[in-house]
Amino acid sequence: MTTFETVFGTAPDGVWRAPGRVNLIGEHTDYNDGLVLPIALPNQIVVSAAARADGVVAVASSGQDGVIEFSLDALEPGSVGDWAAYPAGAAWVLREAGYPIGGANLLVDSDLPSGAGLSSSAALLCATAVALLGLQEVEVDPAEVARLAQRAENSYVGAPVGLMDQMASMCCTAGHALYFDIRAMSTDQIPFDPEAEGLTLLVIDVKAPHRHVDGEYAARRKSCEQAAAVLGVPALRSIAPEDLDAALARLSDDVDRRRVRHVVTEIRRVEQAVELMRAGRLRDVGPLFTASHASLRDDFEITVPELDVAVDTALAAGALGARMTGGGFGGCIIALVETAAADRTFAAIEKAFAEHGFRTPTSLAATPSAGASRLA
Question: Where does the record place the GHMP kinase N-terminal domain (predicted)?
Fold first, then answer.
């Protein structure tokens, strides 16, 4: 077993954590100044850390062999590669922002499946950042840490991600979903306790070969930006649902029309989901999940057969609603099911996947959990 002591020869000074996330609804709305509604998962990245005085950061992972070292003074984008680019990026962005971090030994552990679209990369950045700050006893607002983590992923790692994942990892609270308005940069905690309603939020990793190539993501984003320019708005968030038909009539490109229709209707679905959850009507949120999936499949065109089969099978097994979640082209679905039917629903999906010759899926029950914190 890999422990901090076996890797570095001393006990850690502290242990910090940051969770992964799953987005309940609001897909591909973030870069359109829209609304999202993620929860933090109990699955998390844990960073054990000890300070060192030589300005060097040494990182190791319980899932990888060896130790990777880099000097804080020599950090610049591209200077550290592979998985260590994420802790290096966290150190780089904190120094760029003027925070007095020092050298450290870091051991990373995780029970977050990578490649499943549950934001393990954002969790790693956030966990590293709070560990490096915690070693120096520097307190920073969680939303500011989220913004710095996003900057690290954009500018150091080179991934053009939005802010939702980092905000969820830093700012979620247990028993709630994070209602995040990107345009206003405001958040609200919405009660979300499926267990109290006799429900389970199943997260199914469909194990599809991830086809979320940069070109596809960039094409979706470009289409949204082009349409916004034609319509004379700063972002598609500015189009009210009642103005959607008129806006679509002004677009000559059918692909752009479908992308716009998804974004505008998806933002409205987030608003409707929040209204229902605030009213204690969680069961009624299910059809919004299903409508979201249909929109992502038909208008945004980012599902794959594994996602569609998983959603259709969950619904046939009695799920109140189901949808793909995350960037698409692989990853996970979520299904809101009666707790008594959770095992039966997953078994039906396993059977359907075997019949289609797909890889064997895995599942977890998504309990809404707290954002980043110190463990020890």
Answer: 86-171
Domain containing 101 — which CATH number? 3.30.230.10
Report the catalytic residues.
165
Per the structure, the count of domains in the chain is 2
> Domain check: are 319 and 268 in the same one?
yes
pLDDT tens, residue by residue, 85-108:
999 999 999 999 999 999 999 999
Give Cα separations from 222 to 28, 29, 214 (angstroms): 12, 13, 12
Q: Which of 8, 67, 11, 18 is nearest to 40 (CA)?
A: 18
Which domain covers residue 279, as residue numbers?
194-365
Per-chain mean pLDDT for the chain: 95
CB 371 within 8 A of CB 17: no
φ, ψ of residue 280 to 5 degrees: the values are 75, 25
- The number of angstroms, rounded, from the C-alpha of 70 to the middle of its chain's C-alpha atoms is 28
- Judgement on whether residues 33 and 156 belong to the same structural domain of the protein: yes
Looking at the structure, do residues 76 and 14 belong to the same domain, yes or no? yes
User: Do 148 and 268 lie in a common domain?
Assistant: no
| 331-354 CB burial, b ≥16 within 10 A, e <16 | bbbbbbbbeebbeebbebbbebbe
Count CB-CB contacts under 10 A for residue 155. Answer: 14
